[in-house]
Amino acid sequence: MGKVSIRDVAREAGVSIATVSNALNNSQVVHPKTREHVLAVAERLHYTSGQNAKRPRLSINRVIGLFVSSMTGDYYSNLADSIFYELSQYGYDLEIYLIRGQEDILRRLNASRIDGALIFCGKMDDAQRQKLLDCGLPIVFLDQEFCRRNVSCVLYHSYEAGRMAAEYLLGLGHRDLMHVQGLPCNYDSVERQRGFDDVLRENGVSLRKENLLEGRFERAAAYREMHQYLLTGCKLPDAIFAANDLSAIGVLDVLHDFHIRVPEDVSIIGCDDNLLASFVTPELTTIRTHMEAMGKTAAAEIIRLLLGESGRIERIPGSVIVRRSCALRE
């Protein structure tokens, strides 16, 4: 039999993974008889955590830190809410840290009372990541692909989202396309564009140079870019893929100001499925990112690492949400 995992113990004991975690960490939320049963099952299965059969890392404070550069909009609030709820099932609290840069993360890690970190703060180089690893805490990255013994990453599958958007628009018969990008060097922005471009190339379709705009994941920035595009007299594309819903809504705003009809004159699809997507006119077709699932998975992953399990990469798939902002090309 291979290495016994915490999932195996939960299955054999007939309880949830959260209950096994709490039992192993001697949490008071577990009934004494349940804890005794779980520990007996773990011993019978010869459960050990980590590659070197180390004992589970016992928490000191039972607090996990979420490090983000912003909490603006329902994108981040949905993520934080789902993390908080899932951690509470394991008997952990959540503390949120708004940071200004990578050095700020390091300073707060060293000064905080947390047992593990969830980090959603932008791209890091090898030296910056190594400084975080030297702190010795389990870490889950939410916006970069990086994995070590006590480091995991939980990512939205942005590459597939870009592919979905391109396939959907091509399936409607659109061939002259525009892409409104997110932030330069941002993982999700880069991956969405890569997926979008790959499908276009596979289908013999190319973007006109002027049809690549910088929306920066912002409504106002996307508005300015699209406004300038229309003022220059460039040919209106058949359809537009915006890297997130806020930039898609910025594009919708300027199209409305120029009396350009959506979807009769141009189709548009966003990404995220934020709260505004179903309230704008027309309602926005988008790629749902399932932030709640991402937060839940990230919380469960940091618990795995605290129990000594090895780091891994988890990807959360998206899905197309069809509304009224896209139409068949006539």
Q: Low-confidence parts, pLDDT < 50 over ≥5 residues?
A: 50-58
| Shape category | elongated
Trace the largest sheet across and list its strands.
Answer: 2-1-3-4-5-11
What's the average pLDDT?
Answer: 89
Rounded to an integer in angstroms, the radius of gyration calculated over CA atoms is 23 Å
**Distance linking N and C termini:** 60 Å
Question: What is the makeup of the main sheet?
Answer: 6 strands, parallel
> What amount of the residues lies in strands?
15-25%
Count of helix runs: 11
Number of strands: 12
Structural class: alpha/beta
| SSE order, one letter for each helix or strand | HHHEHEHEHEEHEHEHEHEEHEE
Q: Summarize the amount of helix as a percent range.
A: 40-55%
What does the model show?
This protein is α/β, with parallel strands linked by helices. It has 11 helices and 12 strands. It has helices at residues 6-13, 17-24, 32-44, 73-89, 102-111, 126-133, 158-171, 187-202, 219-231, 245-257, 291-306, and strands spanning 63-68, 93-98, 116-120, 139-141, 151-156, 177-181, 212-214, 239-242, 267-272, 285-288, 313-316, 319-321. Strands 2-1-3-4-5-11 form a 6-stranded parallel sheet, with helices on both faces. A 6-stranded mixed sheet has the order 7-6-8-9-10-12, with helices on both faces. Residues 50-58 have low confidence and may be disordered.
What structural keywords apply?
single chain, 330 residues, alpha/beta, 6-stranded parallel sheet, 6-stranded mixed sheet, 11 helices, 12 strands, 17% strand
